[in-house]
Write a structure and sequence with these properties.
This protein is of the alpha/beta class. The chain folds into 2 domains: 1-30; 32-237, 3-Layer(aba) Sandwich (Rossmann fold), CATH 3.40.50. It contains 9 helices and 5 strands; from the N terminus they run αβαβααβαβαβααα. The chain has helices at residues 2-29, 49-53, 72-77, 81-87, 115-129, 156-169, 176-192, 207-221, 226-229; strands at residues 32-38, 60-64, 91-95, 133-137, 173-174.
Length: 241
């Protein structure tokens, strides 16, 4: 009888341990997975990536695959997409453009009317094959002002190309280019320079700039990705820069 009682007790303990293990693993298994694809302006260290990830609760896993100095062409040609596909994300935000521009060299340059669109279509199609929802994000503006104290952007053709691909392929689109231009036009050159991580760097962001750009992305993401945005933290929980 004692042996039988011990067996029952051991069986109950083993079952409790297994159940506890399943319970502990459940949140991770149920997590919404988000991948970030892009150049340095999307990275955690010099872009909006970390600030964006911090907007979500623990049920959302954000992994940042962005890499500084890359274009839509070079990022793909360096075989950086397979690890994203292996993650099997539910969503993937894609932003390029800055390093696709003329003067960046043949390994990176793309034409906004042709090859840039081709690479964006490639990302969309490959991600869709694994059941991921791609979201195209147009290039955030450089904080370069003209004589009229308004943003003077050379990225407009790339932003328009991203918009056209999103429309043609019926992909959610975040027009960060126009949103960031309007934002900087509103606050003006002096306040815009407070985003510079170092003097003269008008392309990347310090913590304050990253928070502001993440806000713009979230605001423009809500109408086109409501299911994802349902996992946002309450506004009162937004981290301070």
């Amino acid at each position: 009888m004692k042996t039988q009682a011990k067996s029952i007790a051991y069986g109950s303990l083993l079952l409790s341990t297994v159940m506890a293990g399943h319970a502990a693993a459940a949140p991770e298994a149920a997590a919404v997975k988000v991948a970030l694809i892009g150049d340095s302006r999307v990275t955690d260290s010099a872009g909006w990536g970390k600030a964006f990830a911090d907007r979500f609760g623990p049920d959302v896993q954000v992994r940042n695959f962005a890499m500084g100095g890359r274009s839509s062409k070079s990022w793909y040609n360096e075989k950086r997409l397979p690890p994203v596909l292996a993650m099997k994300p539910d969503y993937a935000l894609i932003q390029f453009g800055h390093n696709d521009q003329p003067g960046k060299g043949p390994d990176r340059e793309t034409d906004p009317a042709t090859t840039y669109k081709d690479y964006l279509r490639l990302y969309v199609n490959e991600l869709r094959k694994i059941g991921c929802q791609p979201i195209l994000v147009s290039s955030v503006v450089r904080r370069t002002f003209g004589k009229d104290n308004r943003i003077d952007s050379s990225l407009t053709p790339y932003a328009e190309a991203a918009k056209e691909v999103a429309r043609d392929l019926n992909v959610p689109f975040v027009d960060l280019h126009d949103a960031s231009a309007a934002y900087h036009n509103r606050i003006g050159p002096e306040d815009s320079m407070s985003f510079n991580p170092k003097e003269g760097d008008r392309t990347h962001f310090n913590a304050t700039g990253a928070e502001a750009i993440a806000d713009l992305i979230v605001q423009n993401l809500k109408p086109v990705a409501q299911a994802l945005c349902a996992h946002l933290k309450p506004a009162s929980a937004k981290p301070k820069p």
